[in-house]
Structure formats: structure tokens, C-alpha cells
Amino acid sequence: MTGNEAGGEVAGGGEDLPALAGRERLAAPVVRTGMFGTHTTGDTSGYGGLQVRRPPVRSSEPPYGSYFDDVAGALAGALERSGGSLRAAVERVEVSHGELTFHVRREHLREVVRALRDELAFELCLGVSGVHYLGDAGRELHAVYHFLSITHNRRVRVEATAPDADPHIPSVTDIYPTCDWHERETWDFFGIIFDGHPGLTRIEMPDDWKGHPQRKDYPLGGIPVEYRGATVPPPDERRWYA
Predict the structure, then answer these.
(1) pLDDT less than 70: residues of the chain
(2) Domain contains 73
(3) Are 235 and 38 in contact (CB under 8 A)?
(4) DSSP single-letter state for residue 239
(5) How far is CA 118 from the centre of its chain?
(6) How far apart are the C-alpha atoms of 113 and 100, rounded to whole Å?
(7) pLDDT at residue 227 in the model
(8) Cis (ω within 30 of 0) for the bond into 63?
(9) Which residues span the domain enclosing 203?
(10) Is residue 121 part of a domain?
(11) Checking CA distances to 240, which of 17, 87, 184, 227 falls within 20 to 30 Å?
């Protein structure tokens, strides 16, 4: 390691951006609440509701590099030919960890997805998954789609959001039939309602199960289980040993 590298500087006296970002991340305030034997938090992981300040929202500017510029340009052209625009449909574009992500407004999701299939040769949707961010006010529920172009050997991600108060995102099962079970699973675990889905029913949990167990606000204890009448007590009522 050179002296410049150790000091976080690059040639010319400028600051090494990764080193600067690392120091800022380490300096971010951390709030810890509870541990094993916790009270009222519902935590059983040992992390006790560890919370770290979220980094700023990523937004990349062109040129994106790799084939990403070709995909973004082709998508913009396809949307314009259908009477729309990339600016209206896409909130922001993110290039991170070697992946291209279009953050799409939910009312334009079907328009974007159809363009990916019909105009950009993304023949396969690899799945739909959900994420629940309690602190992302107004957009707590995220649906993430992964697409693959077999023709061009390219991949792209699409992400749409919905608030807890209105957890609706349009279904794309008629465009990509493989999303049928994936949307059912995402609804089952996260509570995202995919409008237009042909049969949005439980796929993992029992039909009469209440709630969506992969949401961050779902309780970890006190849930009845169907095994000889047993129940899982809340964390603060369980026996634990020091």
C-alpha cells in the first residue's frame, strides 16, 4: 500500500472517494434497542432492532457504461413510439454493483414491462420479490422484477413501489405468465395487492393465516401454530438463560 492509498488520497492531492465514503459510513449514528431477553420489541435475532441511517437514494447519470446505455436508449424509444416517455414512466435510473435498475412509477409498470418484452427482447421474467422498508414513508412496499434477454444475454431490474396505505401494484401476469406464482408469493408474504391477477390467493401460508409474515412490522412472537395446539410466546415471555 502506498502512502497516498493509506492516507485516502489519490495522485494530484484529491480525496479518494471510496475512502471518504467509508469514513462517512463508519461515522453514521447507530441506534441499538434491546437484545436477547428483550421487552416489547419482538426481536429474537440478537440484533435488537439495529438501525443505521439509510444512505442517500442512488441516481445515476448517463453514460451508464456496458450495454446499459443501449438498453436505456431502446426503452426510451419504445415508450415514445407508444405515446409515452422515459421521463414520465421512470423516476430514476440506478447503476450499482454491475446491475441496471429502472425505478418505475407503478402506474407505468405495465407499459415499461411490455416494452421490455416486445421491443427489447427480454423474453423471460425471472421473478418478482418484495421488500418492506418501514422508514421509506409513502413508498414502504417495493416490488422488484428481474428480466433476462436470452437473445442478447442481458439483464435488467425494474422496481416499483406502493405505500402501506395503498398497497396496490398492477399485475403483469398476462405479459409474463411466469409471474403468476411469484406475485402470489409476494402478496402472501408482504401484502402487495397485484391488481388484475387471476387468482391472488395464499401460496405458502395457510388460507386462513392473518397478516403477511415477511413485513418488518409483523410480530415475531405470540403467533398460534397448528402443531398439537402449540403457540410461540412473545420474546419477553420466553425462558432464557444468562
Answers:
(1) 1-15, 18, 21-22, 25-55, 220-242
(2) yes
(3) yes
(4) -
(5) 25
(6) 15
(7) 55
(8) yes
(9) 55-207
(10) yes
(11) 227
126 within domain boundaries: yes
Q: What is the dihedral of CA 189, 194, 199, 201, to 10 degrees?
A: 20
What are φ and ψ of residue 114, in 5° steps? -65, -40
Task: Give me the amino acid identity at 163.
Answer: P
- Do the bridges between strand 99-104 and strand 154-162 make them parallel or antiparallel, or are there none, so unpaired? parallel
User: What's the 3-state SS for 55-98?
Assistant: CCCCCCCCCCCCCHHHHHHHHHHHHHHCCCCHHHHEEEEEEECC
Q: How many domains does the chain have?
A: 1
The C-alpha cell of 46 is what? 440478537
**pLDDT number for residue 232:** 67
CATH number, domain of 158, equals 3.30.460.80
Whole-angstrom CA distances from 145 to 51, 78, 157, 174, 183 are 27, 19, 6, 15, 10
Model pLDDT for residues 116-133, shown as the tens digit of each residue? 999 999 999 999 999 998
Amino acid code (one letter) for 90: V
Q: Helix axis angle, 68-81 relative to 109-118, nearest 10°?
A: 110
In a domain, 20, yes or no: no
